[in-house]
Amino acid sequence: xxxxxxxxxxxxxxxxxxxxxxxxxxxxxxxxxxxxxxxxxxxxxxxxxxxxxxxxxxxxxxxxxxxxxxxxxxxxxxxxxxxxxxxxxxxxxxxxxxxxxxxxxxxxxxxxxxxxxxxxxxxxxxxxxxxxxxxxxxxxxxxxxxxxxxxxxxxxxxxxxxxxxxxxxxxxxxxxxxxxxxxxxxxxxxxxxxxxxxxxxxxxxxxxxxxxxxxxxxxxxxxxxxxxxxxxxxxxxxxxxxxxxxxxxxxxxxxxxxxxxxxxxxxxxxxxxxxxxxxxxxxxxxxxxxxxxxxxxxxxxxxxxxxxxxxxxxxxxxxxxxxxxxxxxxxxxxxxxxxxxxxxxxxxxxxxxxxxxxxxxxxxxxxxxxxxxxxxxxxxxxxxxxxxxxxxxxxxxxxxxxxxxxxxxxxxxxxxxxxxxxxxxxxxxxxxxxxxxxxxxxxxxxxxxxxxxxxxxxxxxxxxxxxxxxxxxxxxxxxxxxxxxxxxxxxxxxxxxxxxxxxxxxxxxxxxxxxxxxxxxxxxxxxxxxxxxxxxxxxxxxxxxxxxxxxxxxxxxxxxxxxxxxxxxxxxxxxxxxxxxxxxxxxxxxxxxxxxxxxxxxxxxxxxxxxxxxxxxxxxxxxxxxxxxxxxxxxxxxxxxxxxxxxxxxxxxxxxxxxxxxxxxxxxxxxxxxxxxxxxxxxxxxxxxxxxxxxxxxxxxxxxxxxxxxxxxxxxxxxxxxxxxxxxxxxxxxxxxxxxxxxxxxxxxxxxxxxxxxxxxxxxxxxxxxxxxxxxxxxxxxxxxxxxxxxxxxxxxxxxxxxxxxxxxxxxxxxxxxxxxxxxxx
Length: 826
Fold this sequence. Notes:
The protein is built from 19 helices and 14 strands. It is an alpha/beta fold. Among the domains are: 1-158 and 749-769 and 780-826, Rossmann fold, CATH 3.40.50; 342-500, Helix Hairpins, CATH 1.10.287. A 6-stranded antiparallel β-sheet has the order 2-1-4-5-6-7. A hairpin with a 4-residue loop joins strand 10 and strand 11.
């Protein structure tokens, strides 16, 4: 497999590293026949993203947890709602195109297509078994593996991803699985698996036959028991037949006795009819008498209720009259009490205007006192400001006086020097300060005079304000007195207003006294009417009760006479038929019937049991005959199972496959040693062993790479070597596998891949590492290797360098994919 052209769209690594949403690399034109191609660029520039997608398998190996598609998901590495990977590649002279389309619009969906360039157009790949690439991921994966082999073999031998597992970390089973595909032993393994399935089916059949044999032995023991049970069931059936005949005879006798009792009851039926008629008439008369008594009791209750209602109505009228009289008495007392205060109320009405004037005058005095207090506060504040200003002016005057004194002392020097009065005095530089003091002295004197004038002005204002403040007196005391006087006037006016408010109620009280007398007469009239109505209702109830008593006595007498006549006729009739004898006969018939049913049931159960046991005996005898050859069948199956089990083991990992791996081990070791010798010298020699020693010194199937160090003369497992040495040996071994695939297995990928595999090596070993790459290409007949390395010294050893830094998007976008300089760098 050799990549031709790669296009990535919507990949996070390309966007973050190169600032591009889409990148297209024409690998065929960039390689231009080179053998070693270095893919370089700073960290985070997208090298691994490009490298991990330069193959048709549906995973990025450096990001996957395993070398199969089940250990990876593309969606964590995409940054667009729709992303795409488009790879054109060549294998065995055929040109293919892999297209992976990822959609994340609400739901995640992947479409995978594999096309082949045929007749100048792309057509879907169809495998010999009929598998067609139809956009589904499973058909795509099957087509790719049919063309290139399993992803595990590819990523172990030809494609060395970053952070890949070294062979020394593989478990023996994983290594053997890899070597099975490497050596083309899949058919042997498939045959062994088929033999295992046959053995499993034989084992299942053998278990069934063994169970049948056990059942056969159990049948032999149960047949004798069944024969004894059949004989016992036949005897039981004969005894139940005799019991059924006896029950039928008893039922017939009981039915004859019941017929005799039925004839006697029919003869006495006429007398019983008359007896029942008389009893019915007597019952009707008694019910009519009870109805009359109930009606009389109900009427008495109704009349009693009417009397009670009349009495209750009169009591309610009395209570209403009593409450009304009490209310009138309370109204009379209240009206008379109000009229008794008529004099004070009228006096209060007359005093209200004078109290209102007094309240207004008190409020005016309070407001005047409060304004005087505010004026005093402003005057005191102004006096404080004047005092502060005067202190500042006094300090300023002191400073000015000191300045004048200093100027006078400096000026006096001009009179004391020897050159005083001569022309030299004006030109002497030593007297410059004295001459300057002469010019400054007038302004200093003027400043002192100004300060004194301002002090005098402030003193005048202070005296005036102090006089005004003394004239105001004590405003706080005046305000307190005014507030006390106002509160007293307000309280007096409130009490007077309460009395004056009763003036309107005086006339209402007089009118109320006049209406109380009329209401009292109306109350007495209503009470008299209620008493009269109650007495009339009681009289009506007494009359109705007397009338009902007379009518009830007559009707009850008539009913009692009729009842006595019917009772005499009933007593003259003969005694009734004794139904107890007839009931006893009926019970005897029922008991005989039940006994017959029980006998029939017992006979049926015995017959059914006998038939069931006979059937079971016949079935057991038939099964006993069928299972007579079970022992020979079990022996034959055990022999055949042993043969298939041995074949399964022989064709498994520990059989023929292990022998084939043993045969291939020296070849792989020879290729590995050839690479080590040609590139790193004779220090290390490897051997591959497929059997390891246990703690008991026994040998068991396994896998290990033993390295002999010529410098120390010791041998040890590759897993015990240092990190750099392990990389060295692992790279030689995996590349030897690639060479073996090319030479012996007939599977040539044409292109090898490695991503930063030289990391742990020192500079000298890295150069040898590059030499081994060329040796692998030569031995395996590969056309080129694409590798990623951060070691700049190795870039110069490559035939072509693809520099991703030149592909980073810029505002001018001056460098585009496909452009390169003469040195082969982008």
